[in-house]
Design goal:
Elements: H1 2-19, E1 26-32, E2 38-46, E3 56-66, E4 70-82, H2 84-87, E5 93-110, E6 113-115, E7 118-120, E8 123-141, E9 146-153, E10 157-165
Antiparallel strand pairs: 1-2, 1-10, 2-3, 3-4, 4-5, 5-8, 6-7, 8-9, 9-10
Length: 166
């Protein structure tokens, strides 16, 4: 099952740009406040030409958080709906919401220590899970190519980012 999920996520990452060639695509970086800080990168591919001109895109992301003894990484994909046209807001303000799946890998490392005069070697434990990913936020377009992104999601919490559209 693990290999199937990874292959599916990578397939979407490779195929989405080909399908989205006519739309507005972007790449970006972001920082979330959960887990002592979550750093992420993402690609977003407009698929509105495939959805009867609905403002839908596919987002593919990678996020990483490091705590004292725990490293957590998420790889995922989500469908994003842009509510700008429905909300009748300024052209620069784009509220959105999305849902998809994330594959979370968590590695816990217990460092080597001395116990009763003996050295106990370091030990690592790894767990993985596939979970639902939800996000919602607002983008503010500074220029047609750059936007600032403020969102809330279930891997990163309150997140701020910047995107470059091409």
């Amino acid at each position: 099952m693990k290999k199937i999920v990874i292959v599916a996520l990578l397939s979407v990452f490779v195929a989405a740009p080909a399908f989205a060639a006519d739309g507005k695509n972007s790449v970006g970086i972001n920082y979330g406040t959960d887990l002592n800080g979550v750093l992420g990168i993402q690609g977003e591919f407009d698929i509105s030409s495939m959805t009867n001109k609905q403002p839908i895109s596919v987002q593919v992301f990678w996020k990483k958080a490091s705590q004292t003894f725990v490293d957590t990484t998420a790889l995922g994909v989500a469908g994003i709906y842009d509510f700008n046209a429905l909300a009748k807001l300024d052209k620069k303000i784009h509220p959105y919401a999305g849902a998809g799946f994330k594959r979370v890998s968590e590695t816990t490392t217990i460092p080597a220590y001395t116990f009763g005069g003996f050295i106990v070697p370091s030990t690592s434990f790894k767990t993985t899970s596939t979970d639902l990913y939800v996000t919602g936020g607002v983008r503010y377009y500074l220029t047609p190519q750059f936007d600032a992104d403020l969102s809330y999601n279930n891997f990163g919490g309150l997140t701020i980012g910047a995107n470059f559209s091409f």
